[in-house]
Amino acid sequence: ARLVVLASGGGSNLAALLASHGDPAYGARVVGVVSDKPGAGALDLARQAGVPSVVVEPADFADRDAWNDGLAEAVEVFQPHYVVLAGFMRILAPSFLDRFAGRVVNTHPALLPSFPGAHGVRDALAYGVQVTGCTVHVVDHGVDTGPIIAQTAVPVLDGDDEETLHERIKVAERSLLVETVGRVAREGLRVDGRRVVVGG
Ligand code: GRF
């Protein structure tokens, strides 16, 4: 299966996918990386891996809708089977999601539905939970509200701050994302209401 990865940051999740996509048994290749940030580390990772990358910056467009259309065009060029959001910090418009209906997957560093949004790690820490984790889910028109495909629990340890906790979550998150994306790529994905069936 052909994957396009959207990333805004350092790209450690992208790095994990790139490390796996060489294995023919994995069943998925990252064919393109798209970022909203010209300096994103994810773009360097793509270049090092010989994967084409494109920057689609909001500043280059008249408004959010135009940017969303530009982003969809850039993604469409790669003809993806699935679009993976790996640390992509923008909300995608319904028009984008309808274009890739049911084929957009996101990873979130908390156990949804708890702590959605851009500060899931900080919010879990502030709340005082003893267990948090990460979630891979299908992207729907809400923010981090789509049907859940897979989750991993991660303990919060004494003395954790946002950074130490996020790093611990990311270790689990990278494995969960690679494993889940591989299964979806090999077996397909069917959404039935709130339930997701991989290999349906
Ligand atoms: C990941 O934890 C992702 O869930 C969150 O931001 C982080 C991105 O990390 N949205 P990286 O850029 O993949 O290293």
TrEMBL record:
Keywords: Purine biosynthesis, Transferase. Pathway: Purine metabolism; IMP biosynthesis via de novo pathway; N(2)-formyl-N(1)-(5-phospho-D-ribosyl)glycinamide from N(1)-(5-phospho-D-ribosyl)glycinamide (10-formyl THF route): step 1/1. The keyword Cell inner membrane does not apply. It comes from the Bacteria. The record marks 144 as: Raises pKa of active site His. GO terms for molecular function: phosphoribosylglycinamide formyltransferase activity. Its EC number is 2.1.2.2. The active site is at 108 (proton donor). (6R)-10-formyltetrahydrofolate binds at residues 64, 89-92, 106. It catalyses: N(1)-(5-phospho-beta-D-ribosyl)glycinamide + (6R)-10-formyltetrahydrofolate = N(2)-formyl-N(1)-(5-phospho-beta-D-ribosyl)glycinamide + (6S)-5,6,7,8-tetrahydrofolate + H(+). N(1)-(5-phospho-beta-D-ribosyl)glycinamide binds at residues 11-13. Residues 2-181 form the Formyl transferase N-terminal domain. CDD domains: FMT_core_GART (cd08645). HAMAP family: PurN. Belongs to the GART family. NCBIfam families: PurN (TIGR00639). Catalyzes the transfer of a formyl group from 10-formyltetrahydrofolate to 5-phospho-ribosyl-glycinamide (GAR), producing 5-phospho-ribosyl-N-formylglycinamide (FGAR) and tetrahydrofolate. This is Phosphoribosylglycinamide formyltransferase.
